[in-house]
Structure formats: structure tokens, C-alpha cells
Amino acid sequence: MRLKRIFLASALIVLVLCQAALAAGPARNVIVLIADGTGAEQYTLARWYKGAPLAQDAILTGMVRTFIADSVVADSAPAGSAYATGVRTSDKLISVGPKATVLTGQSVPPEALRFRPLASVLEGARLQGRATGIVATSRVTHATPAAYLAHVPSRTMETEIMEQAVHQGVDVVLGGGRGYLTPKDAGGSRKDGRDLVPTLRARGYELPTTASELASAKGPRIFGLFAKSHMAPDIDRAVLAVDEPSLAQMTAKAIAVLGHNPKGFFLMVEGSQVDWADHANDPAHLISDLLSFDRAVQAALDYAKKRKDTLVVVVSDHNTGGMSIGNARTNSTYSQMSLESLLEPLRGMRVSGEALWKGLGQAPTPEALQRAVSQGWGLEIGLAEAGKVLEVAAARKADPYYALGEVLCPAHTVLGWTTHGHTGGDVPLFAFGPGSPRGLLSGPELGQATARALGIDLAALNRRLFVDAAEAFPGQASFADGVLRIEHKGRLAELAANTDILRLDGREIRLEGLVVHAPDTGRTYIPQQAVRRIRGQAGK
Ligand SMILES: [Zn+2]
Questions:
Q1: Residue 25: its pLDDT value, please?
Q2: What's the gap in Å between 402 CA and the centre of ligand 1?
Q3: Which of 13, 190, 226, 271 stands 20 to 30 A from 245 (CA)?
Q4: How far apart are the first and last CA of the chain?
């Protein structure tokens, strides 16, 4: 009898321990590094140029299928959303549920999921008490970082994305996009007239704006935005933006600060500009930014390899540009391609195509372009060729500098490009540490693997963070002028969209998650915690 009781007790302890272990997940820390717009061939080019293995070469574990709900070719918003939330969604959407139109053969998402905010692994990690961080070289409101920070029906809603990011409770945010903290009439980019800097200060954030200020920032909370808009291309940083930190510096700093949390951390790092280089068909910008990303991956692996508790995942969200080593000029000579023929034309490239173009000023002449290409890219081009570049540039509505790579790469390099857009192939997956994902995964499966590594139950997290206010308070909730009002048993609750604040009976309560309004469905979602407080129920 007594033995039986001891057995039952110990079985119970084992069960509890197992559940605790499951809830914790196999990894203490997870670092996801995303090279935006990078396919296998770009890695190959960067490796040849570097002349040594890339940081992630030794940890290849699989491939990722990148298609989104409504397209076989992905854009960053839905692709990043899949990695952040484990759910496949539609073009332009930032971590909200998919629209009804889906690819042939894919199941139509349930009505209740449409535009519903989808909890991200960052939110899950934060609720577990882990530290969280986001690093990017774009504006931090750009699609990929936004997928981890915010929930909006369009990637262009950067004013709202920044407000959510500020109220998200992330510990470390490093990148560009300072303009979205302040109103337009104060020199910022916000359309709503709000200034978010006082909110950040009140919440204890340090706000470094230069590399040296970042280096001396102590943490634990840092909101470091180093450019009004995007940060400079890595290749131009030394000349155009000497005060900006590199991606590797930001990554190492984020890891050092987040690593102090005894419960661990989640960090997403984006090499944002590889994609833009690919869009521009610009090999100089591409190689430099991919090698900058490589140094950030090295910083993450240096940390993880000293420990046994850190999962590092390296992936991209889609391919861009369709770059190939080999082009129409090498139709019949490809099998005698020397390394010099690949690298020599690239070695003289010292600036991004965009910087080269901006240096020309308005209405450049073929002679001026010829000189600039010789100085900036080390290529000697003819006047007729310079004229052709100017002609292609003039025909473009935006981004005239795309003409440089489009005209000059086929003639002067062995690189081919098939598009200025994205392409739909699988992308390589690299992972190191506990819970490493393996094999051919879909984007959502990679997001789910990240959640599993952290011990996050995404379904439970979604129930906890996003309750449809109209369902919780039938006939009592209304949304107007950006504010949800709930009149419940004589109490008035007010919740401003894109914040984590509940105003109840004149008191201000900081919530554990965001208030998210979905304009397409008219629904507003609030944390379960807010529902309990408004109902006057005990507990948090
Ligand atoms: Zn892109």
C-alpha cells in the first residue's frame, strides 16, 4: 500500500517534471537569422568572394518551401509571418490570418481566422519571461521585423507597426526607422501626430542613435534606431554613414544584453538589404551585405557554440533577382569558367549601385556615368553602353539605378539575373543546437519548430492574447476613432488600438499583449487578461 503510494507520488512528480520540461522547450535561447531575398546561388557567390566557408556552411539541415497562401512566389510580409507565427497567410499581411483566396489545391482558411492577429514566437517568449530582441538593417517597421513585432493588414502601415512595436514590450530593438517614432511636423515620418519617444523613455529604454552610443548602452532595454529610414548598405557605411553600427555589432550587442535574462531569450536578426541588392541586380551591394550577414551569423554561432542551450536558425524568406553564376555570355564557355572571370569584375566594385547613381546628380551625361562606373565599380564601359544605361534608367518609374546591374552585369560579369522581383524556389535552411529543424519544411512548419524549441503552445498563446471583444462582450463593445469602448455592468473600459493599455474606471492598466483592430472585418482583439479585468474577475 505504502509502496504503491510512493510509486504514484513519484509517477506524478515525473509527469509534472515532463510537463515542465515540455513547457520550457529544448532550447533556452533561440536566435533566428533571416537573409532577406537570398537563394542558394547568392550564398555560393558570397563564399567564392570570401574565399573561405561561410559561417553557416557547416550547419546545413534542410530547405524551406516559401510559397504563401495566395502566391507561389512569396513576399516578405507573409513569408516572415509564417516564420513568426507558424501560419501561412496572404500577400501584404503582417501576422494576421489569411484572406479567402488561396492557391489551387490549398484549403480555404476558416472565416474566424481572416485578419485575426496571429501570436508570434516573440510574444510567446516574452510571456514566458524570456528576453526578446529584434535586429534589422532596414527600418524596424519593414516587413520581416514587423512580422515578429506587430499585427496589421498591410506592410505599408508602418505608423501603426511602430506604435505596436513600442507597446510590445520587446527588450532590444536595433535597426533603422527612427522617423516613425516622431510626427511629420517634428521632422519625423508619423502621420498621426504622435510622439512615441516619451513612451519609450517612460518604459525605461535607452535610445542610442550611433554605434558608439550603442556600445556604451547598458540595457536591459534598448531601442536603438540609427537612421531616420533604412540604414546604409554595408558597402557604403564607411563613407555615407560612419556612425551606424554593423549588423554583426548590433547582433553581438543584442545577444550580450538579452543573455542576462535567467530564463533565456528570443532574438530575430534580419540581413534586410540582400533583398534590395537582388532587386537592383547589384552584385556589389549583394556580396557586401551577405558577408555582413555572415559576420552576424558568426556572432550568433560563437555564442551558441560555447553553450549547449542555444538554437541558431539561419534561413531566408524567399529568393530575389533569380541570380545565377553563368549568364547568356557563358552559353558555350561555362565549363571553362575561371575563378578570375567570376571574381575580377566584382573586385573593383566599391559602392552600391544606388550610391553610385545618387552621386551622379540630376540628368547625368554618358561621360559622367562612364567616369562614375569606372571609379565606383571599376568597369570600363563605352559611351554607347553608358547611353544604354541612361536609357533603361529613364524608362523606369522608380529606382533608376536598377539599370546599372541590368545593363552592365550581362556584359561585364558572368552573373545572370532573371528578374527585378522575387522568385519561388526553395531556400536553404541552416540550424545549430537543441531543437534544430531538419528536412524540407514549409514556412509555417519552420515557425512551428521555433515555437516548439521554446516550448510555446501557439494555440494556447493565441487564445490568451487575442480574444474577439465582440464575442467576449456581446452588444457592449464599439470601436471608433482608434479606440475600443466596452460598457460592462456600469463600468467603462477604453482600449486604444496598437497599444497595450486598458483604461478602466479612470485607471490605466498595462496589459500583457496588444489591442489589435482588424479594419477589414471590424473586429477588435484584446488579451484575455483585459477581459478578466473588465469583468472584475480576480487574478491578473
Ligand atoms: Zn523583396
A1: 84
A2: 14
A3: 190
A4: 42
Strand partners, 65: 442
- 344 burial via Cβ count (<10 Å: 0-12, 13-18, 19+): middle
| Chain length of the chain | 540
The DSSP secondary structure of 471-523, one letter per residue, reads HHSTTTEEEETTEEEEEETTEEEEEETTS-EEEETTEEEE-SS--EEETTTTE
CA–CA distance, 471 with 490 (Å, rounded to integer): 19
pLDDT for residue 506 = 87
> Rounded distance, CA 300 to CA 251, Å?
7
Q: Residue 30: helix, strand or coil by DSSP?
A: strand
Distance 200 CA to ligand 1 centre (A): 30
For the beta carbon of residue 14, count every other beta carbon within 10 angstroms: 10
Smallest CA-to-CA distance from 246 within 269, 229, 228 is with 269
Quote the CA–CA distance of 236 and 279 in Å, as a whole number. Answer: 17
CA of residue 382 to ligand 1 center, whole Å:
31
**Ligand 1: distance of its center to the CA of 397 in Å?**
17
Active site residue 442: no
> 3-class DSSP state for residue 289?
helix
The CA 423 to ligand 1 mean position distance, Å, reads 10
Please give the distance, rounded to the nearest whole angstrom, from the Cα atom of residue 308 to the centre of ligand 1.
35
Q: Please give the distance, rounded to the nearest whole angstrom, from the Cα atom of residue 36 to the centre of ligand 1.
A: 7
Indicate the SS3 state at residue 242: coil
3-state helix, strand, coil in the chain (%, to 5): 45, 20, 40
DSSP state at residue 271: E
Q: Which of 10, 71, 76, 352 is catalytic?
A: 76
Burial class (CB in 10 A: 0-12, 13-18, 19+), 243: middle
Environment class of 410 (CB within 10 Å of its CB; exposed 0-12, middle 13-18, buried 19+) = middle
Per-residue cell: 258: 538579452
* Identity of the amino acid at 27: A
The pLDDT tens digits for 149-175 are 999 999 999 999 999 999 999 999 999
Amino acid at 187: G
Average pLDDT score, the chain: 94
Q: Which three cell numbers stand for residue 32?
A: 533566428
- Long-range contacts of range 20-24, CB-CB < 8 Å, 24 or more positions apart? 22/455, 23/455, 24/455
Distance CA 55, CA 291 (A): 9
Could you give the 3-state DSSP secondary structure of residue 94?
Answer: strand
User: 45 C-alpha vs ligand 1 centroid, how far in Å?
Assistant: 19
Confidence of residue 252 (pLDDT cuts 50, 70, 90): very high
d(CA 473, CA 294): 50
